[in-house]
Structures
1.
Amino acid sequence: MAGLLIVAAITACSPSTQSDDSDLTIFAAASLRDVFVDLEAAWLTTHPDTSLTLAHEASNVLAAQISEGAPADVFVSADTERPQQLLEAHLVAAEPVPFAGNRVALVVPTEGDRVQSPADLAEPGVRIVAAGRGVPITRYTDEALAQLALTMPDPEAFAAAVSSNIVSREDNVRAALAKVELGEGDAAIVFRTDAMSSDRVREIPLPAVIDITAEYAVVQVSDRGTAADLVEWLGGPEASDVIEAAGFEVVHP
């Protein structure tokens, strides 16, 4: 809910009413929370006369807020669908461009022993934490579980058992990760970079046949010149180095 609180705080000051275009509001997917700390620092090194206000939430929530008039200048989504939908609704100033790639990871508590392999997700009593419908990680999770089921002796039974073991659906991927960190869940599928960010979870390897790449996109929402500059910078070599160091896959338009 932190992203929602930030959005509420800035709603009263839309880009069109600010005195200049040096203060930018960035809506970014929850899984980008950590990397944007480093991206912001790198951007400000070469653009010291600007400032960034960051709001992080599930991409579907952020897209809905933009649709309702929330004052974003740039939107970075954990999928390509939401930015494209905003473009088709004439709610953004430019076409979306690729931002980064990510992988999915199965995580369990560091000291947890209920799940030792992906097959254990179907064991009775295992508590699986997931994200809500519409959250990008949910689609990627569904794809991963469908591929995983095909590696099991009885795919339909495995899929049904896993579905029955889902004990909660959280607002975003970081909230799902937090549940596992706290021991309130035995497993979750999150983004690889989320798994890398925490020392309270460990990763259970998925079969090599599960080959899913999450595609992130960035789009300029407002018509402010500095917003266009930031989108261009995010696709450049300096930002790419930061993105890659954080465990994301670098993509190019």
2.
Amino acid sequence: MKFSADEKFLFQEKTVSAFLFIYQKEVTYISEVAANIESTFAHTNKIIKRLESIGFLSSVFEGRSRFLKLTPKGYAFAQKLSEAFDICQSDDVFNYPEGYEPTRKTETAEFDTEADASFLTERIEQSGSAAKSDAKSNIKSDSKEKSGSKIKIPDGPLSTADRIKLFGLRIKEVYDELIENESDKTTFLRRLGPFDRELKLIGSEIEKLDLADESAAELQAAYRAAEMQYSFYLGKE
């Protein structure tokens, strides 16, 4: 089996890390992705541009701010990738599908070059280490939760009001799942903690508004409500 240039790119460790982080965040910034995958802004920007060029990612602009979100194709790929990591980390016992029996094929597939074989070995090793890493587990969202998500991201640039609303919906979705699974305090902090950065970014935008304006005052009130909601969720076990 010969891998295309795009396929090789998609399974590089930094690409996988960035891709799954965007999947978990739903809407994010390049700088936030760079910080999470521990990469430079320039290198992360190259990854983002490549993902856009192959139709897996799109950018939306709000003023001078650029936000990232997955395309439907990218979302479908991210779901399968997340499920693959779930299998890597699972302690479940797996069985072959009913009626399946592995047999040697009459025509054996061979690698075209030693480079292809080396590439496959490298990707397997990287995938294994990534699946076992606690740092990587923070960028992976539970596939069951994501597939059942009813949160819709508005098309076009996101307003501050949209971001506050999405923030509230997203943390509630995660919180409800944690309650349902009777998760412990450590899991609450691990799953909800990363949302603190988005809350602070929204807060910095609110501070720039003229609170004498009625709409600005309403945004501030909505932000304070989201802030209280987040604090409440973090304080629960």
3.
Amino acid sequence: MVQPTNVQSVPTVLGRSLGVAAIDPVPIFRDGLAGLVHRTHGMHWLGQASSQHGAMQLAEQLHPDVALLDSALDPNCHLTRLLCAGDPALVVVLVVRDSNRAPQYLAQAIAAGAHALVPRAIDPKRLSEAIRRAHADRRYLDPTFAALLGRLKRPSAEGRVPLPRMPLSRREYQVLQLIAEGLENSGIAKLLFLSVETVRTHVKSILRKLSARDRTHAVTIAFRSGILVTAPDDAHNVTPLNQAVTAPAPR
């Protein structure tokens, strides 16, 4: 896949080094994660994204081994589900904020495919270990969450945790995100490397699936139903659309 001009290729890293990326709306937190990965033997930093749309681009363009995802960007676990479905090799580590520590949310995240759950206030050494264990075992649960999940009663006879409905495909989800950010079909086509006609087809499908009258109505329905979510209060800096994904320059 052709990468946007602002996304630069990362040199090949030999051995067992893990490529790690972050999806988080807070610049200082992303920088802190990057610093931790740079200091950790056996890991290398691939890049970062600050939005749901950026997360999809990051997964498609940079192919990280591990993605650290802020739970504030995924309160209904739609993004986790789409990321895991799009790349079965990707390990998603959900970095859980205090506002998302409810047992039901933790169970939904696991059901959606999250490979690891860690608190946002986790100690750096523990986070490094969690990343390694999540990649090696494809499962890691921080001890602080084990007791919370133990209190959760089985929601059905099959013991399955119901997930919020997500009627859209990965590409439709991206297109809807960009519609919500104010882009017209031509701008969406340029950003996603699609033809305008293909974007029109996706828009028609979105309107049909959401039973929406028009684009504005579709966005309204998506926010009301939780398919789209507003940025958290601490997301002070909005990344420009043409810089949704950033990667380190070759050294």
4.
Amino acid sequence: MKIRHNKFIIIIAIIIVLLFAFDIVFKGKVYQISCYVINELKFKVEEKFVSDSLVEAKPVEELTIQDLILLGAREEAENKTLYDASYAAMAYPEGDVSSDIGACTDVVIRALRNAEIDLQQLIHEDMKENFELYPQRWGLSEPDPNIDHRRVHNQIVFLERHGESLSTEVRGNLEEWKWGDIVYWSFPDGSLHTGIVSDRATREGIPLVIHNTSVTKEENCLFRWQIIGHYRFP
């Protein structure tokens, strides 16, 4: 009887471990890939109504900083970078996490770096001199170049201080929304998100955005969440 009882406990333990493992996988790669497939199918339907890229038709020697920022972001979408906001030690300056993963903020960081703008170094240097002006949300007593530039709140403070702040209204202000601009949203749960404005637009003239919530993609999502910030840098 005791042997049967022990076997039963072992079986239950194995089932729990398998369920736990499945839960981890489901919330990780499987979930991300599922979201990617759904969004890809949706975008394929919408794509025929989207304009071609003006920037990609330009000669290389005519590309501006904003063009290069856009192309850096588009490369992230083409690479289908998976979402992963985990803390990681990295080089400084010009440090980065593994190229196949990244958070929404890494889309912005890599986009600007394509235009030879190192947001990691810029934010770190600004925080060293003005630490008290940045959000005190993470229990730090000094700047951390591994993560500070990857936090949405810190990017917003930096751009408020050093970038050009633009209208958060879209309709009636489309002329203010240029490719290479950086947009910030607030999700319904209060968490923040960011992306790079594209040069491709819907037939109504609404620009697509390149961003990463599961897999980096370029899509019609500007109105999907509440816009709380719109910046141009430099």
